[in-house]
Amino acid sequence: MAAVVLAATRLLGGSRSWGRSRLRFGAPAHRQFSSGGAYPNVPLSAPLPGVPRPIFATVDGQEKFETKVTTLENGLRVASQNKFGQFCTVGILINSGSRYEAKYLGGIAHFLEKLAFSSTDRFDSRDRILLTLEKHGGICDCQTSRDTTMYAVSADSKGLDTVVGLLADVVLHPRLTEEEIEMARMAVRFELEDLNMRPDPEPLLTEMVHEAAYKENTVGLHRFCPTENIAKIDREVLHSYLRNYYTPDRMVLAGVGIEHDHLVECARKYLLGTRPAWGSEAPVDVDRSVAQYTGGVVKLERDMSQVSLGPAPFPELTHIMIGLESCSFLEADFIPFAVLNMMMGGGGSFSAGGPGKGMFTRLYLNVLNRHHWMYNATSYHHSYEDTGLLCIHASADPRQVELERAKTQLMSMLMMNLESRPVIFEDVGRQVLATRSRKLPHELCALIRSVKPEDIKRVASKMLRGKPAVAALGDLRDLPAYEHIQAALSSRDGRLPRTYRLFR
């Protein structure tokens, strides 16, 4: 035992002396000078002699590359936004869509979307167009909405001349052969069947609520081609429409990731003085109608029990969308309405995520969290050049904490979306098409920050005084009457008449 104690004492004593020697003779806690041989005595906190002083990037909240806009002699606008990177997104946006089809067969814009990037005067087939784009790593797309048609290409910036020439040919010189039109008819039929069979009824309900809100005018016209018009739309009908609405003064050539002067040069080369396939006659029948909000109800009784993605059927649900008139995106109240839409928020009952996904919005807290039988409650805001539609109602004054949260969410969503080049392209094109200029992100964020609680109260009160638009799909036996829905929206507590209450 004595030997063991002696050995332990020596070990402990040795470890203490080893520790002291390490502290005395070991390396210092930090180096005072550079270890490089060229500058042996220069402290790390001082710049190296003879080396240029570094210039660091600063964040000042301003966007360095403003959107440039040039108007050509024929009225076509060219807009660009510089952005670093090898690839660019370029496209032509046209003030054209289903809202301008009042004097035509409904569904022309839908057909033109399916016919986009087909054969032209220079390219004898869609395959030739795709092969040309592939040489520059490019992809193409066409989208139509109620008020805008957009042809877009993303490709290597070095192929800008080829891309603009291809876009000009696709937009102004389509062949529209009978074979291509027949293929478009098949694509339209398939899309209509898919629209009526998909479990998510949101696209169909959106169509119905617009039809109810703007009865038989402008944005209330069918965005999808009605079945009875599919066989009636031919080359002559399409050319008649294109002659009136595919004109230079209704177009914007927008680009992101390219030099503005180069884009203007390409626009002059391919889009100035060219004669389109339908002739150069002046437009004679342009619809300049202003949207007239009417309110109303559109109902569609349907058995939804067989709608399913697999062998197990979905629960049979009744789907209702209520819309109220808001404002156009040109009005000052557009920003408060956008914040109000974020405050309402919502989503599906199985949505996952934290506060950034809307878990603290009013529809989550007051509807989905309180009523287990609710599968979905979501707010939508549709805004156009002369009107707007908010598809949910608000009846309580907002608290400051949720207002700040909604404003932060809206700014966060705006900035994250604008990190994508195609989104920047669409933003540039749509703003210049509508206003001939573009508000930069920091300007929009400043407008969002300036929204006050009284702004939300004002726009919500104004909206609730109007007539609602109601779209209902599914089993509608217990759907309240339109007058009762309108009365509930205008009442202080938002309650339906006692006839529809479970507990009186």
Automatic annotation (TrEMBL):
Residues 232-407 form the Peptidase M16 C-terminal domain. It comes from the Eukaryota. GO terms for cellular component: mitochondrial matrix. PROSITE patterns: INSULINASE. It is found in: Mitochondrion matrix. One of its GO terms (molecular function) is metalloendopeptidase activity. One of its GO terms (biological process) is protein processing involved in protein targeting to mitochondrion. Keywords: Mitochondrion, Transit peptide. Residues 77-227 form the Peptidase M16 N-terminal domain. Substrate recognition and binding subunit of the essential mitochondrial processing protease (MPP), which cleaves the mitochondrial sequence off newly imported precursors proteins. Belongs to the peptidase M16 family. This is Mitochondrial-processing peptidase subunit alpha. The lineage of its organism: Eukaryota, Metazoa, Chordata, Craniata, Vertebrata.
